Every structure is written in structure tokens, then in C-alpha cells.
């Protein structure tokens, strides 16, 4: 029986270059044995999600999410609740492309990403469920997580990482901790924190070392709770991340593995960020769905422990170096007085 593939693509993702490569992508997939068709998402709510569900129920063997992390999230939400789920392919065309980074899928060339799918190697990936929504990379709560909402989508498209860095520099001094109640596999956290997040991969916000020991299919989230909101301490933590993931043992961090989480606010509203978008307010229950979706990946570059150090973009290398140098200068200055 002929295999069928449906490409669900966002025509406005990233710098809108995907459309130029679409014909060649179709040819690559046809040569790989798929009868392939394409669907362009519309501004209507849940456009990609609804089409993914329809295509899966129509018997398509492969659904490809072509766009940013938001498009991938929608497609996963379309197929994750189904008993019979097609395989998933990813062609990144967004700003950060965290999920593609974790799967070692080429992020600069949609054609090369299509070749990864045609190569036929897959990984059965964990995904997360947050109440009745699903996510593939992160869920987060707290004031720091609101950074994503504050960056307009057109800025993300034009400026990529720089949009997040500029907005982050603006918001960081205003971040304050809130009281949280977090129930996880081996304990409970009751106290103040500027944010928590649950990670499914090692790539968060374009950085590889926030979760240095992430596994893609072990049935566990990595739960990180950032207890401080002190500006200098926050900057030191970021420096530790950039210096090889040394933050995980810091006293201002709770770093544990868990298959589930219940997050409850205590005395003020707590918004939940799911794969970079607003996903509702706490209280919320999270569950890891082990090896739930089979996804095409560049498996030759993913070691058994599911972690590699990927060569960073040159501009990001420069940003990181300047940030670390700046924090060290602040740390050595006698004039810095920051209240905790």
C-alpha cells in the first residue's frame, strides 16, 4: 500500500523562506516513497492542530510539522490524543527551533531537514500533558516565564534570539519571586520562586546546557525551580549555565527528575507557559507520556545518553562570551549593591 504524507506548514514562520523550498521538499519525500501533499495553515485558531487530527484519522502514515516550535506543538496536540498516531517529521522554520535542535535536525536548511525524514531513522519520544493540552519541549510557570509573551511575534521573526535577549534585559530587574506549591514524584516544594519549568529535552531557549543530562525517552521530566530573583544571583546562574551547566548544584536551584507534577499558586495568579505560548493558569497537572510519538531524527548525532554539545551559531558564541565577561566585571565591582 502506498505510504501517504501530509506536510502542514506555517507560511509565516521564521523569515518565510520555507515556501521557496517546498517543491524540492515534496520531491525528496516522493522519492522516499511517500505520496505527499501540503497544507498551509491559516490564521484561524488551531489550524495546524485540526488538520493534523484530520490527516491522522484519514490514515496518513506521516505528518510533517513545518514551521516553528508553535507549529510543532499544534500538530502534536492534533495527534497525541489519538489511539493510532502517525509518525511525525519536523522541518524547522521558526526562531529558536528548540525541538529540532534537540533532535539534531538541520535548522538552517529545510531541504536538509527533509532529507533527515527521507533517511527513515526515528526516535520514540516522550511528550508532556498539561491538563488537557500536550507539549513537546517545556512547560513553565512564574514571572520569568512571561518573557516569551512579551516578545511580539513579528520581532521573533525578524530578530530571532536578539528579540529575547533585548526583552530579557528589560524585564529581569522587575522579576520577583512568588509563592508556589509544587508536588513531584519524590517530594514537595513550598516556597518562593521566580519560576519553575519542566523540560523534555536539553534545548531550552536555544541553550544546550540548561538541562545537561536530559534524556529523550526515559519517561521523566527535568524539573527546575529557580528560587531567587536577585539580579546579581540570576546573572550568576545564567553564567553557570553558559559555563557547562554548573547551575544544577547551586543552592538557588532545585533540580530533580519526575514523571509528574502538580503546580498550584498560593497567593497570586500563576500563568503557565507551554512550548513558548500561554497555556492557561495554575493549578495544573503535568504528566510525562513515555515514548508516545515516533519522530524522525538525525539519530547518528544523538548519542545513547541523548546529549551532545552542538556547535553554536557564531553570533550566539559572542553574546555568551560578552555576557559572562560582563557578569564577572559586576561581581568584582565594589559599587554593586543589590537587595535580595
How would you describe the overall organization of this protein?
The protein has 10 helices and 16 strands. It has 340 residues and is of the alpha+beta class. Helix 2 (47-57) packs across helix 3 (69-79). The longest helix is centred in the last third of the chain and has 19 residues, at 314-332. It is globular, with a radius of gyration of 20 Å. GO terms for molecular function: ATP binding; ATP-dependent diacylglycerol kinase activity; metal ion binding. Keywords: ATP-binding, Kinase, Lipid biosynthesis, Lipid metabolism, Magnesium, Metal-binding, Nucleotide-binding, Phospholipid biosynthesis, Phospholipid metabolism, Transferase. Its EC number is 2.7.1.107.
Cα-based radius of gyration, to the nearest Å: 20 Å
The end-to-end distance, rounded to whole angstroms, is 65 Å
Q: What is the N-to-C order of secondary-structure elements (H for helix, E for strand)?
A: EHEHEHEHHEEEHHHEEEEHEEEEEH
Helix share bin = 25-40%
> Taking strands numbered 1, 2, ... along the chain, how are they ordered across the largest sheet?
6-5-16-13-8-9
Q: How much strand?
A: 25-35%
What's the total number of strands?
A: 16
The number of helical runs is 10
Q: Segments where pLDDT lies below 50 for 5+ residues?
A: 154-167, 307-314, 334-340
* Largest sheet entry: 6 strands, antiparallel
Counting helices, strands and paired strands, the structural category is alpha+beta
Shape: globular
Quaternary structure classification:
single chain
Q: Average pLDDT across residues?
A: 82
EC number: 2.7.1.107
GO molecular function, one term: ATP binding
Domain DAGKc: 1-134
GO biological process, one term: phospholipid biosynthetic process
Amino acid at each position: 500500500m502506498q505510504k501517504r504524507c501530509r506536510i502542514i506548514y506555517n507560511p509565516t514562520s521564521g523569515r518565510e523562506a520555507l515556501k521557496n523550498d517546498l517543491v524540492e521538499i515534496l520531491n525528496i519525500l516522493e522519492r522516499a516513497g511517500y505520496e505527499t501533499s501540503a497544507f498551509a495553515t491559516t490564521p484561524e485558531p488551531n489550524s495546524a492542530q485540526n488538520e493534523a487530527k484530520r490527516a491522522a484519522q484519514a490514515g496518513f502514515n506521516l505528518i510533517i510539522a513545518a514551521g516553528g516550535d508553535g507549529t510543532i506543538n499544534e500538530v502534536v496536540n492534533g495527534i497525541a490524543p489519538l489511539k493510532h498516531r502517525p509518525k511525525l517529521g519536523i522541518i524547522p522554520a521558526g526562531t529558536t527551533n528548540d525541538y529540532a535542535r534537540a533532535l539534531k535536525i538541520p535548522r538552517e536548511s529545510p531541504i536538509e531537514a527533509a532529507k533527515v525524514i527521507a533517511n527513515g531513522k526515528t526516535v520514540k519520544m516522550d511528550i508532556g500533558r498539561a491538563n488537557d493540552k500536550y507539549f513537546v519541549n517545556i512547560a513553565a510557570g512564574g514571572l520569568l516565564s512571561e518573557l516569551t509573551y512579551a516578545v511580539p511575534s513579528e520581532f521573533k521573526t525578524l530578530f530571532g534570539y536578539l528579540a529575547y535577549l533585548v526583552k530579557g534585559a528589560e524585564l529581569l530587574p522587575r522579576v520577583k519571586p512568588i509563592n508556589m506549591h509544587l508536588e513531584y514524584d519524590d517530594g514537595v516544594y513550598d516556597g518562593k520562586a521566580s519560576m519553575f519549568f519542566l523540560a523534555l529535552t536539553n534545548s531550552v531557549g536555544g541553550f544546550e546546557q540548561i538541562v545537561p543530562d536530559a534524556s529523550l525517552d526515559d519517561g521523566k521530566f527535568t524539573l527546575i525551580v529557580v528560587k531567587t530573583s536577585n539580579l546579581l544571583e540570576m546573572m550568576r546562574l545564567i553564567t553557570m549555565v553558559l559555563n557547562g551547566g554548573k547551575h544544577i548544584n547551586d543552592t538557588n536551584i532545585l533540580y530533580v527528575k519526575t514523571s509528574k507534577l502538580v503546580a498550584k499558586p498560593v497567593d497570586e495568579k500563576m500563568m503557565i507557559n507551554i512550548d513558548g505560548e500561554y497555556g492557561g493558569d495554575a493549578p495544573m497537572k503535568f504528566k510525562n507520556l513515555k515514548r508516545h510519538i515516533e519522530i524522525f531524527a538525525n539519530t547518528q548525532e544523538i548519542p545513547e545518553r541523548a546529549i551532545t554539545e552542538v556547535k553554536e551559531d557564531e553570533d550566539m558564541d559572542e553574546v555568551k562570551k560578552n555576557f559572562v565577561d560582563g557578569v564577572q566585571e559586576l561581581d568584582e565591582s565594589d559599587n554593586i549593591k543589590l537587595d535580595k
